[in-house]
Write a structure and sequence with these properties.
Elements lengths: L1 H18 L40 E2 L6 E2 L6 E5 L1 H6 L15 E4 L8 E4 L2 E2 L11 E5 L2 E2 L13 E8 L3 H4 L6 E7 L7 E9 L3 E11 L4 E12 L3 E3 L4 E3 L2 E15 L2 E15 L4 E4 L13 H4 L11 E2 L6 E17 L2 E19 L13 E18 L6 E21 L5 E23 L2 E20 L5 E23 L2 E12 L11 H6 L5 E14 L4 E22 L5 E24 L3 E16 L35 E9 L2 E2 L3 E12 L2 E2 L9 E2 L2 E12 L4 E8 L9 E4 L9 E5 L7 E9 L1
Parallel strand pairs: 7-10, 14-19
Antiparallel strand pairs: 1-2, 3-9, 4-5, 5-6, 7-8, 9-10, 11-12, 11-41, 12-13, 13-16, 14-15, 16-17, 17-20, 18-40, 20-21, 21-22, 22-23, 23-24, 24-25, 25-26, 26-27, 27-28, 28-29, 29-30, 30-31, 31-32, 32-34, 33-34, 34-37, 35-36, 37-38, 38-41, 39-40
Length: 766
């Protein structure tokens, strides 16, 4: 299988390289015109970038906090636009991994436990106050809680995925990369967009966006979206469908531009939603006994289905679910000061998620079959960023800035009443101050040197009250100062061919593991050590055939020290807790190729591939997986394993994707639509402990769409089929053998397209 996969994947990589193109599809600017407002920064003087007049395609990104042509940015950046997301069946955040091959988004029983990885590195942690390794921003404003992102993607103009450490410009939550979601901006004339969708398996939803001027100086945009999905898992205990969701989003912006030198944007948003939880058993040993109790066989504890890899049923006597609500906004000001621009961004965000889990996952009504987990996550974030930017068209240009953030979390948590008991309340707070600078110097007509530095100071503190164990109370704090930097050299052989080399460092701050099991020993041990990274990249950026074809490739090698990762702590009663730990060292290296081609007015093709070798270099005291024997490497007291040389979790060797859109003319006013999208993921283990029960074998998914659109794209009607060949796969696997006396018991999170389904989507644009 490995030999076959390597052969297929290498051939696919060659095919990707031959296709050619940009990191992704995005809207383009007309030759000789200013960049379209929708492709600019969130507004103001720094948004104006004039593309090359001979250019057929200019994709503008704000990866370096100024609007630039993506081909001129010495970073590994992917740009995703709404049309590409629709063709790939991407409607919510956790689906983004389908179209960004270096990105893996692993769902969980609720969004807090989901994990985002770039190039095989992410933070899987249950504790409050633990920063992710991959930051998520909306309009350049960071989210305090990554779970806040796990909803629909309404009103998206583009999504920038920056791979590799981005700590110099974006701070401590971007040690492995970041995802910047850019929403639509007010337009100079009235503009309306709307989308509606209905599927064959009871999903329906829609979104709209209205924008235009209130006066010559004041513009607005208002958007909203609603999505409902019944779910693809049947709870035979009560006959209800679960693993579904309901989300409502709304967002508004006002942009005031009284002169060419002043632009002020006020934005507000609101989010409300819920999910139903269902984790089917796909493998259970015939002799397994729940809680090792005589008579409690699989047929008794979850009657009504037979565990198998095709199983989409559960039997739970408790309504496992989440509900969440959040709101926030930002005030962005851009002020021209002669040749300079001062940018100020002030933001506020508040979010609450309530989680309810059937912890035993059975239909038993006796106490051991009624064990539940109930908790709440509350977060509040306040940020302030100031930066001063020089003109972007000078040989020497710079950005200098300062950043402040205050984050507060609290979490009450209860688990019981029968086993793995827990009852606690924790708070966490952090205050961050940072100063940063980045400069580009075009010291030769075709050579540009970039240097960046960030110095940041962080104070953290916590409280933890263990109600379960006599109201034991712990509190503490820590402070740390660190610096990160970046150096890059870019050489432009021609206006369409350039290479770059980049060295950058990343940093993610220290934290406390505020989860079940926190005690005096953990308090005395102090915080988990900071996570640091060092990254080397070589990139090639090319365009040809009048820039209708582009081929980009990046080679990278990144070393992480003290990677913060979730381990497994097995309790004496056989159940398991998750505990944050430092992985000694991890290395991730590989090749990324991204391409598209525009053939005439009828055909566009995109393809991307990532080859990844992500391995643990040092982790001598890693947790064993449940059931691991001494012969399998689990030795010592307490039991441990040495993971040196093991592959990192959520790090498939190959991820490939390709898509095509064929739009032939039908008369003078109509065009047909034919779309196909393909996604391939090689074998991946979802567990850091190398648990054989959490391995997903390689799989491919095909999506197709057929329809018709107006020649000017004012409307489009497409019928689609996702997972055309009905391939079953699992984006997350959970080993729950601890609840069955160590006998095999494996559960899965089913993806949205676990079964083939079809639907119709309608888009209006006028």
């Amino acid at each position: 299988m490995t030999i076959l996969c390597n052969s297929v994947c290498r051939n696919a990589l060659i095919a990707v390289m031959l296709v050619g193109a940009t990191p992704a599809l995005a809207q383009t600017a007309a030759p000789g015109a200013l960049t379209q407002p929708s492709q600019s920064a969130p507004g103001g003087p720094t948004s104006t970038v004039a593309p090359d007049p001979d250019s057929a395609t200019d994709i503008i990104v704000t990866a370096n906090k100024r609007a630039e042509n993506v081909q001129d940015v010495p970073l590994a950046v992917s740009v995703l636009q709404p049309a590409q997301l629709q063709a790939a069946g991407v409607r919510e955040f956790q689906d983004l991994g389908r179209v960004a091959p270096s990105l893996v988004v692993r769902p969980a029983e609720h969004p807090v436990n989901a994990n985002v990885s770039l190039r095989g590195v992410g933070t899987f942690a249950f504790g409050i106050g633990v920063e992710p390794s991959v930051a998520v921003l909306v309009d350049e404003v960071p989210l305090a809680f990554q779970a806040r992102a796990f909803s629909d993607l309404p009103d998206v103009e583009r999504i920038e995925v920056l791979r590799g450490p981005q700590s110099t410009l974006y701070g401590k939550a971007a040690s492995a990369g970041l995802i910047n979601i850019i929403t639509r901006n007010p337009t100079p004339t009235f503009h309306a967009r709307a989308n509606a969708l209905v599927t064959s398996d009871q999903e329906y939803g829609g979104n709209f966006s209205l924008s235009g001027p209130i006066s010559p100086e004041l513009g607005y945009v208002f958007s909203g979206s609603y999505n409902y999905y019944d779910g693809n898992v049947r709870n035979v205990f009560n006959g209800k469908d679960v693993n579904g969701r309901r989300t409502f989003n709304t967002r508004g912006k006002l942009r005031w531009k009284p002169s060419d030198d002043i632009a002020i944007t006020l934005s507000a948003n609101y989010l409300n939603g819920k999910t139903d939880v269902g984790r089917p058993f796909i493998r259970v040993a015939p002799n397994a006994l729940f809680r090792n109790t005589a008579g409690l066989t699989p047929a008794v504890v979850f009657p009504g289905f037979t565990p198998s890899t095709q199983n989409d049923k559960i039997s739970n006597n408790y309504n496992a679910r989440t509900n969440y609500e959040g709101y926030g906004g930002y005030l962005r000001g851009e002020f021209g000061l002669g040749d300079l621009t001062l940018v100020s961004i002030t933001s506020y965000d508040k979010f609450q998620l309530n989680d309810f889990l059937d912890q035993d996952d059975t239909a038993l009504t006796v106490p051991i079959g009624s064990n539940v987990q109930i908790g709440t996550f509350n977060s509040k974030l306040v940020t302030q960023e100031l930066r001063l930017q020089s003109p972007g068209d000078k040989p020497f240009r710079y950005t200098i800035g300062a950043y402040f953030a205050k984050v507060d979390f609290n979490r009450p948590f209860y688990r019981g009443p029968a086993f793995s008991l827990a009852n606690w309340y924790a708070t966490s707070a952090s205050r961050q101050l940072a100063g940063f600078v980045q400069a580009d110097w075009e010291f030769l007509p075709k050579a540009t040197l970039t240097g960046g530095l960030r110095v940041q100071n962080e104070k953290i503190n916590y409280t933890f009250r263990d109600i379960q164990n006599g109201n034991a109370f712990f509190s503490g704090g820590a402070e740390d100062t660190a610096e990160t930097h970046r150096v890059s050299l870019r050489y432009e052989f021609t206006p369409d061919v350039s290479v770059f080399g980049t060295y950058s460092t990343g940093y993610k701050g220290q934290t406390y593991d505020l989860t079940t099991g926190f005690n005096a020993n953990r308090a005395l041990a102090g915080p988990i050590k900071p996570e640091t990274s060092r990254d080397f990249e070589l990139g090639l950026r090319t365009q040809f055939l009048n820039r209708r074809v582009t081929l980009n490739a990046t080679v990278f090698d990144t070393n992480f020290t003290n990677l913060q990762a979730q381990g497994i702590e097995t309790l004496p009663d056989g159940t398991q807790n998750f505990r944050l730990a430092n992985v000694g060292k991890l290395n991730t290296r590989g090749v990324e190729v991204e391409s598209t081609a525009r053939i005439g007015h009828d055909v566009s093709i995109n393809a991307a591939a990532t080859y990844l070798d992500a391995r643990i270099k040092s982790f001598p005291v890693a947790q064993c997986y449940i059931g691991q024997t001494a012969a399998q490497g689990c030795t010592g007291t307490p039991a441990r394993q040495n993971l040196a040389g093991a592959r990192a979790a959520q790090a498939p060797e190959w991820k490939l994707s390709a898509g095509a859109d064929y739009s032939p003319a039908i008369g003078d006013t109509l065009r047909g639509v034919a779309q196909i999208n393909w996604q391939y993921t090689s074998t991946v283990n979802y567990s850091l402990s190398q648990d054989p029960e959490t391995i997903q074998k390689a799989y491919s998914i095909f999506n197709i769409g057929l329809g018709i659109r107006d020649a000017n794209r004012r409307w489009e009607l497409v019928g689609f089929v996702n997972n055309l060949f009905d391939k079953q796969y699992f984006p997350a696997l959970v080993n729950t053998a601890g609840n069955f006396g160590g006998a095999q018991a494996t559960q899965a999170i089913l993806p949205r397209d676990f079964r083939r389904y079809g639907g119709v989507r309608l888009a209006l644009n006028f």
